[in-house]
């Protein structure tokens, strides 16, 4: 697998990066105060944030170009969705703004990475 640079000499592959993203989402979700509004938001951000890495792993093991593109498209969608849930959590709990920023930023970067992968991926047969 190709190694990627994620900033200041932190080299690791995309599978590790997406797994670490899921872990950070879980840690963030555990810090969000629980109430009637945040409970469903927390559930949603954990689903979308951890789904990115799971779907990337499936894309890496894809059996066809069509399968690969489908899984990468799901990664792209789930990373965008994670940004949305971050925003909603901050709306519900404004004191979470600073903690949400790195999650939102990484979700944005992953969305851009998966968009680029999709643009360059071979067409389905």
UniProtKB/TrEMBL annotation:
InterPro entries, sorted: 23S_rRNA-intervening_sequence, 23S_rRNA_IVS_sf
Transmembrane feature ranges: none
Listed Pfam families: 23S_rRNA_IVP (PF05635)
Protein name per UniProt: Four helix bundle protein
Source organism of this protein record: Prosthecobacter vanneervenii
């Amino acid at each position: 697998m190709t190694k990627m640079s994620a900033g200041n000499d932190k080299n690791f592959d995309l599978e590790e990066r997406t797994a670490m993203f899921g872990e950070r989402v879980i840690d963030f979700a555990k810090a969000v105060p629980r109430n009637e509004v945040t409970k469903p938001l927390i559930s949603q951000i954990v689903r979308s944030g951890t789904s990115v890495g799971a779907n990337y792993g499936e894309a890496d093991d894809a059996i066809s170009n069509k399968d690969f593109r489908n899984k990468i498209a799901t990664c792209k969608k789930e990373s965008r969705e994670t940004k949305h849930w971050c925003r909603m959590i901050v709306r519900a709990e404004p004191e979470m703004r600073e903690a949400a920023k790195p999650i939102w930023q990484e979700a944005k970067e992953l969305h851009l990475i998966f968009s680029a992968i999709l643009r360059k991926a071979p067409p389905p047969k």
